[in-house]
């Protein structure tokens, strides 16, 4: 009897859940939000990469801007103006006696000549200051204070001709030159001078020094005298003034400049 009234068990298999509109909307939202997050992460990564790249470029440009890329060249010419040698003036460059002689000749001409134009005279002295060390500049300042060249403007003119330059020692040269003095346009006399100039070599370490004195040849000791003074000219021993020239010598080293 029991078997008659017993219920048979019903087995239900697994079925897929019903996909409701809410579930569809949730999936779409998740996909959109996930895609936005992935894109944001990619953009952040790109931004960091660009930042470090820009930083590296900025550092590189800064270092390049601080370096000196100007390379001066030394051109040696002969007596007729022909080019004998062209070479870069690197730190290891040591000018020979001919180059130093030209430099010293240019220095004497700038310093001892007396033009009629005050602008030219000022430029000559500024150029001479670019060729001396600190001790040499001190000598020039003392000399200009005692023998102001601007006082003779309009009255005298002096032309300088260097006649001889020979090496006197390891670091000094003997220079001979003659000065033709004109007073009010009329030739008056010719004076002859001899000087001993001490020279040091110092490679330029900045753009200003490279522009003013690319070879690094500096006069640091100056001592000159007139070779012969006629009796009638004893009271006018200097073409710039009536004050007697008292040579002053200075000394220095490569640290002067």
From TrEMBL:
Q: How does it sit in the membrane?
A: Single-pass membrane protein
Q: Which CDD domains match?
A: TrbF (cd16425)
Which cellular compartments is it found in? Answer: Membrane
Q: From which residue to which does the signal peptide run?
A: none
Please verify whether the record's keywords include Transmembrane helix. Answer: yes
Q: Does the keyword Transmembrane helix apply?
A: yes
Q: SUPFAM superfamilies, from UniProt?
A: NTF2-like
Q: Where are the transmembrane segments?
A: 41-62
The record's GO CC annotations read: membrane
According to the entry, every stretch annotated as the Bacterial virulence protein VirB8 domain falls at 24-227
Q: What NCBIfam families does the record tag this protein with?
A: PRK13872.1
This chain's protein is named: Conjugal transfer protein TrbF
- To which species is this protein native? Emcibacter nanhaiensis
